Give the backbone structure.
Amino acid sequence: MAKYLAQIIVMSVQVVGRAFARALRQEFAASRAAADARGRAGHQSAAASNLSGLSLQEAQQILNVAKLSPEDIQKNYEHLFKVNDKSVGGSFYLQSKVVRAKERLEEELKIQAQEDREKEQASRT
């Protein structure tokens, strides 16, 4: 009886160990893919993501903006900020997420404008 119990325990540990190792490999692969994606987005954009705590994609999803248009960002920001106001029963947490998303998208617009200016200067010379 003890022999069978020991075999069951050993097999269980092996199964759990393999599952843990597989999950760890998947997490490393996902982390590497995210790092590569941030690297392609440019160093300034990655730095902005780190500072704000939101990626560009998250900020776009929060404000429901497909392309970076200052008018759309401002319009959606104002609507979501009013809807989530605590005085009308909204959530302060969601309101703060909306503010951070707007800040992140504005930072990305600044980065893009700077890159455009640098390209213009390079093409002139």
Remarks:
- DSSP finds five helices and no strands in the chain.
- Helices lie at 2-41, 43-52, 56-63, 70-83, 92-124.
- The chain has a mean pLDDT of 85.
